[in-house]
Amino acid sequence: MKKAAAYLIALACAALLPKAQLRAQTQSPTMRAWAILESNRDENSTEKRVQAVRVMALLPGDPRAIEFAQTGLTDDKPEIRAASATSLGQMQSTSSIPKLRALLDDKEPEVVLAAANALIALKDPAAYEVFYELLTGERKPNKGMIASQMKTLKDPKKMAEMGFEEGIGFIPFASIGYGAFKALRTDDVSPVRAAAARILVNDPDPNSARALVRATSDKSWIVRVAALEAIARRADPKLLDAIVPALLDDNLAVRCTASAAVIRLTALKDRAARNRPRAH
Which CATH class is domain 187-272? Predict the structure, then answer.
């Protein structure tokens, strides 16, 4: 009788919980991670959409991530188009080359540069036309950007801001976004520590792995992002459980980076389990 009463109470309590909360309680870390990224992709906020798209670069070879990034190439916001192009280049998505070539005719110079930079990473010679014009200030026959684009590209200040805003790879920490540019003005320590975190990506010492995990709880969001990116690229599934709490971080850039890291490490963990010899 008591068991039956307890069961009915549990059902009644469950009925009072919001559906979203119930779903969250039953979701795996990977499902929660994709939900975070997809919800930000569908936001009206440009910054939220940029953050969701930029971390796709941490998921090379993932068809869902490639499609996710490709969708952003036709977004009405140039920031999204540029971030999407950057991610696809870093993902080595050769199937995206035709779509990236189309962006070389974009009306926004930051998008053109992001697409060209991505095509260079993909070893596509079409991008050289953009950098030829950037270097010489001259157009090849029947090629080239409009005059207003060239004016922007010759402005050092605009180029610096563009590098931070779009993550086109010209400036350290560019992939973190424009927020880092503003943070650098008041904080000259976090960028150095973030750089140290990225350098530790390939250090096999377990102490470095533990240091990166600790850094995911650092007071500086720039350091937390860099540590999570390093953990994702380190590709050690044993670090998965340690970074799941970062899915709840207060900072959007950290949450999105943690989401991509969780997805990547979960896939690696599942692959290792499938390939593990079975006991006879």
Answer: mainly alpha
Name the token pair of 51: 């953050």
| CA separation for the pair 84, 68 (Å, rounded) | 9
Q: What is the DSSP secondary-structure string of 107-158?
A: SSHHHHHHHHHHHHHTT-GGGHHHHHHHHHS-PPTT----HHHHHHHT-HHH
Residue 140, CB half-sphere, CA atoms under 13 Å: how many?
11
What would the pLDDT profile of 78-126 be if each residue is shown by its tens digit? Answer: 999 999 999 999 999 999 999 999 998 888 888 888 888 899 889 998 8
Fold of the 46-171 domain: Leucine-rich Repeat Variant (1.25.10)
Q: What is the pTM of this model?
A: 0.73
Separation CA 143–CA 116 (nearest Å): 14
What is the residue extent of each domain of the chain? 46-171, 187-272
Residue 116 near residue 127, CB atoms below 8 Å: yes
